[in-house]
Write a structure and sequence with these properties.
UbiA family prenyltransferase; transmembrane; UbiA_prenyltransferase; transmembrane helix; membrane
Length: 286
């Protein structure tokens, strides 16, 4: 029987915040194998991400708010074993897709554990921790979806969207840390957001999304589909408006960089980007 703390700390709803990367990558696949695409969706959102969340929570033992959970319960040993079991199941299913997918999936798990494990704890280093996250949750995840969902299991992919996936996470990840500065510092962790400061984090994330826009503009221009790029910008407009208003509040009062506003942004940004990339997927399938 799963304990309440285990269910809470797996943070299944948090997978929604990472779901845009799946739809983003899938929208670029020319010929989709829908059975494998469905399996990959489940592997990422029901096994890989929750297991990583659970292991991270087991190592951190947070007492203050964390992503998607305002009042985390104390973790138990069950959380550790459930996370390990989900990893084993995920790796077994990943092997059914292809060897390259299995290697990439296993690499994600390994990097996630090195990120959180107390003996190594890559997350305590701002640059290395940031790079670990954007490479794995961004570029590597893009590869897993693009390769695994391709009907021919191709190992080549368009470089601009793959790089844009990394910078998408680069713009999302630091913002999720702005309310955790004291908690992270007390735990001996210097995040990229702490390094940048609260105001600097907002400016940095704005720059990351600017790079994403530039990469996508370059890609869609090269294939003569600028109208698609313009459509994506329409979906992103509510996010830009919210961040601009929040930035104005934070500039006047740093305490506004809190859990409430962060979660509001996460839900808004995830919803808008999910809709944007699902629309892009549907357009490419017509």
């Amino acid at each position: 029987m799963l304990q309440k703390s285990t269910v809470q700390l797996l943070r299944l709803p948090f997978s929604y915040f990472l779901m845009p990367l799946y739809w983003f990558a899938l929208s670029f696949v020319p010929n989709i194998n829908w059975c494998r695409a469905a399996l990959i969706f489940g592997l990422l959102h029901l096994l890989l991400y929750p297991a990583s969340n659970g292991y991270n929570s087991y190592m951190d033992r947070d007492e203050a708010s964390i992503g998607g959970v305002e009042k985390p319960m104390p973790p138990t040993k069950q959380l550790f074993w459930v996370s390990m079991g989900m990893d084993v199941l995920g790796m077994a299913l990943a092997f059914c897709i292809s060897l390259p997918f299995f290697v990439a999936y296993s690499c994600y798990i390994l990097c996630s554990r090195l990120y959180s494990y107390r003996g190594i704890r890559l997350k305590q280093y701002p640059i290395i921790g940031f790079a670990t996250v954007i490479i794995n949750q961004g570029a590597l995840t893009f590869f897993m979806v693009y390769h695994g969902a391709s009907s021919d299991l191709t190992t080549t992919m368009p470089w601009q969207p793959a790089l844009a996936a990394a910078f998408l996470i680069g713009g999302f990840y630091p913002i999720t840390q702005v309310y955790q500065h004291r908690q992270d510092a007390d735990d001996g962790v210097t995040t990229i957001s702490i390094l940048l400061g609260i105001r600097g984090t907002f400016l940095f994330c704005g720059a990351m999304y600017g790079i994403v826009a530039g990469l996508l503009l370059s890609y869609f221009s090269s294939i003569h589909q600028l109208a698609v790029f313009a459509l994506l910008l329409i979906f992103f407009t509510p996010i830009i408006v919210y961040v601009s208003k929040w930035l104005n509040m934070v500039w006047q009062d740093a305490t506004k960089a809190d859990f409430k506003h962060t979660m509001q942004l996460n839900w808004l940004a995830s919803t808008c980007t999910n809709l944007a990339f699902i629309t892009l997927l549907m357009m490419h399938q017509l």
